[in-house]
């Protein structure tokens, strides 16, 4: 099968059907929606993807909010022979594709293709019910591992009246009816403790051939469906694991579409990250104690105690000079004990009478052993740090992560497939090169991003194996929104919300009468802002953390005069079109904090080579976060409002201030407070 090959549906011999194009399918899909019509950027994006597949060239597409990029990439995907994989960063978008976009698209294009396209969703193994674990669920104790030995008793679930017992019984009842075993289909859902008892992480699975319940495995069935579908929808986390596992999870394919591509590098970093905790070592000792000699099991328990002691006196933060002596000794004990344990267990044979228990123990030991070896190597390509929770749960951990994943992406993302990466925020400072480097694309490739307004000039820019284009947005940003920078405020210094910034916020919110989404750099600042407005206004003030996020967003939409204040998770994914959100306030530029270990290490590495770590690392991170936050304002063609940034550096900082502004939609720009207040007052009366 040649990359980019398209298929033609064979009609009866007398009238061979003309091969459909991406434009044909897009027209059919949009035409099936009452009042629907294609948008210039949407059409250009679909045709560019079709061309990229034929020419076997990777493509970066910036598609602003309102472009309709889902249909723009799904329609050309249907022309590719074999499965096409679509990866998303959020569960919300994954759900939207599978539950809404793809069913509608399949109905609309069936007459054009002469058949109904198929699609499937592919999730990590732990999202599916494990029959092997379910079979033991009513006889095992509610611990972190189902297969730990426990004293026999009438019930291990605290009785049928217990919450956990009720949830397990409900899962057992659901298991008799479900066809997919997908956790998302269990309604109402169950908590994480209950689901852990009936699901199997990938590392713990002995494999279909060795598992006595392999023929009934829901996770394996999902992979079979994925191999047979036209379009497979997955997520960045599983895609990252697939790359690190030599691409043996996601079915073979010729086209990969990465939506929300600005998130991919971080997800790969997370997948490549590992940690050691005393609790994990203790769990390993419990899981393997019936499989190991007493002295080996005891050495694991001693290693856990040693790690507890080693972490006790070390402050949280990056380890810049290697492992401290006590911590080094603890990690060495863990490596030695886990290696001895793995040698004792050995290979798991196909006729092993207890393959699941052995695989769980072996996987746990192997993960700890690999992490310990990685920490002991103290590679210049890794970053290590100590984490200590401030939530009161006593969590202590030593963590290791790659300094960069660009090399991993370069070697494992692009081979033997065409990759289309798209997002509303792929250009930084008006150029693609920063994001391209982060995604592992070769240097010296196309950098300028053709600006696109209502009639975008989205001519692709070609380079070394990849092409970039900006198809713009249907929104008229200069007429729909104002970007106001409070340049008269002093440069923010201390954490929290400065008094002058609080007064500025109060004036803006009062001018509009609520309808404000406040995006803050810290929980302290969000809380201070809420206290200020609650004390001096009668407006309903909603604060992240006081209720669940879905409930807060629903109340924000329904209560017209309300304000919603929160931190980083509100900066993306909140979609509130209409007049419920006409003011977005950002308290300060979202640079990474100095105590973020990875960002600090990456900046230091750039500094060490004579570059500027701040410019190369911190500024791009802030640019993406800022663009995501600003993007909460205009969500439809009828929206109007103001983005107010209470950080004067966006106007006054030489160099990076202009870079950050050029990374944002082209709002009408002002630093005059009276202009912003006047616009908000007019909106309040409209």
Automatic annotation (TrEMBL):
Alphabetical list of PROSITE patterns matching this protein: HELICASE_ATP_BIND_2
GO molecular function: helicase activity
Domain Helicase ATP-binding, chain residue ranges per copy: 28-311
Entry annotated with the keyword Hydrolase: yes
Annotated coiled-coil segments of the chain: none
InterPro entries the record matches: ATP-dep_Helicase_C, DEAD/DEAH_box_helicase_dom, DinG/Rad3-like, Helic_SF1/SF2_ATP-bd_DinG/Rad3, Helicase_ATP-bd, P-loop_NTPase
Family annotation (Pfam families): DEAD, Helicase_C_2
Sorted UniProt keywords: ATP-binding, Helicase, Hydrolase, Nucleotide-binding
Gene3D superfamilies: P-loop containing nucleotide triphosphate hydrolases (3.40.50.300)
EC number, UniProt record: 5.6.2.3
Keyword Methyltransferase listed: no
Catalytic activity: ATP + H2O = ADP + phosphate + H(+)
Cofactors that this protein relies on: [4Fe-4S] cluster
Family as reported in the entry's similarity comment: Belongs to the helicase family. DinG subfamily.
Listed name of the protein: DNA 5'-3' helicase
Organism: Winogradskya humida
Species classification: Bacteria, Bacillati, Actinomycetota, Actinomycetes, Micromonosporales
